[in-house]
């Protein structure tokens, strides 16, 4: 079984981003970039499936600028076999990424596609669902457990009030939730080995995909500053404020 994993290069989760002065977006100049955390979980899950003898090959894909090669190298160091960069300097929205991934899935004939449940920069939570829809195959989103047997994937997902388990026929799309696994640390020998693995570079045009944006960002603003709290003298004063000022009780 061939697994295709999508990995996005995003602003590192430790970075506190700032809004640009013209409110057109966030400033990512000279900011640390890393693999989207949910995608690290996706790569780890694919590697575990390969180690368990379920998967035979793991292909990682990233779409974006040349620097995405660093993200792909990290995925190769975790244990992916080869990588594809869909290189473009243009802005990519979830539908465009889903179309690019569909073209690659058709080409690679992968049986399982693993994506993060969301990218922590745009928080869209759309690409996996759109990919499953474009391919017209089953989807198991927000997976916290994946078991593959007899050509089926059993995906456990956390839903309001409990756990839901879906049986998906393959090929299928799975998106990862935080609890699925804890990605391994990348070791130096594996980083060295990853340098020898192949990264193929293609352009969106080579895949016949129109990536033009469908959505326009009108304005990006900082969230309102929280006002300072007040100390109350006793419980009675607190209750009085909750009742008459905040009006929550
Ligand atoms: P989103 O729908 O933007 O929240 O992204 C969900 C998931 O889609 C991410 O966790 C990635 O697995 C995948 N994805 C989104 N954008 C890209 C990209 N430019 N390159 C590779 N994978 C992506």
Automatic annotation (TrEMBL):
Keywords: Electron transport, Transport. InterPro entries: ET-Flavoprotein_bsu_CS (IPR000049), ETF_a/b_N (IPR014730), ETF_b (IPR012255), ETF_beta_N (IPR033948), Rossmann-like_a/b/a_fold (IPR014729). GO terms for molecular function: electron transfer activity. The keyword Magnesium does not apply. CDD domains: ETF_beta. One of its GO terms (biological process) is carboxylic acid catabolic process. Residues 23-211 form the Electron transfer flavoprotein alpha/beta-subunit N-terminal domain. PANTHER family: ELECTRON TRANSFER FLAVOPROTEIN BETA-SUBUNIT (PTHR21294), ELECTRON TRANSFER FLAVOPROTEIN SUBUNIT BETA (PTHR21294:SF8). Belongs to the ETF beta-subunit/FixA family. The electron transfer flavoprotein serves as a specific electron acceptor for other dehydrogenases. It transfers the electrons to the main respiratory chain via ETF-ubiquinone oxidoreductase (ETF dehydrogenase). Heterodimer of an alpha and a beta subunit. This is Electron transfer flavoprotein subunit beta. It comes from Polynucleobacter sphagniphilus. The lineage of its organism: Bacteria, Pseudomonadati, Pseudomonadota, Betaproteobacteria, Burkholderiales.
């Amino acid at each position: 079984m061939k697994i295709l994993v999508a990995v996005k290069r995003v602003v590192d989760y430790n970075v506190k981003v700032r809004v640009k002065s013209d409110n057109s977006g966030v400033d990512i100049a000279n900011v640390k970039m890393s693999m989207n955390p949910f995608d690290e979980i996706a790569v780890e899950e694919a590697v575990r499936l390969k180690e368990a003898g379920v998967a035979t090959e793991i292909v990682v894909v990233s779409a974006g600028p040349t620097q995405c090669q660093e993200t792909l190298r990290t995925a190769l160091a975790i244990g992916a076999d080869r990588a594809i960069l869909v290189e473009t300097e243009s802005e990519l929205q979830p539908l465009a990424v889903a179309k690019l991934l569909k073209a690659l899935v058709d080409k690679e004939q992968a049986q399982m596609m693993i994506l993060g449940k969301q990218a922590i920069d745009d928080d869209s939570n759309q690409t996996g669902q759109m990919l499953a829809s474009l391919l017209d195959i089953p989807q198991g989103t927000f997976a916290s457990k994946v078991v593959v047997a007899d050509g089926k994937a059993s995906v456990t997902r956390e839903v309001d009030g409990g756990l839901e388990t879906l049986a998906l026929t393959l090929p299928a799309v799975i998106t990862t939730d935080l609890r699925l696994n804890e990605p391994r640390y990348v070791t130096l020998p594996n980083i060295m080995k990853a340098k020898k693995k192949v990264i193929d570079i293609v352009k969106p045009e080579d895949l016949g995909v129109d990536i033009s944006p469908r959505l326009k960002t009108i304005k990006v603003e900082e969230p309102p500053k929280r006002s300072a709290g007040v100390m109350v003298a006793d419980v009675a004063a607190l209750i009085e404020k909750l009742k008459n000022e905040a009006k929550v009780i």
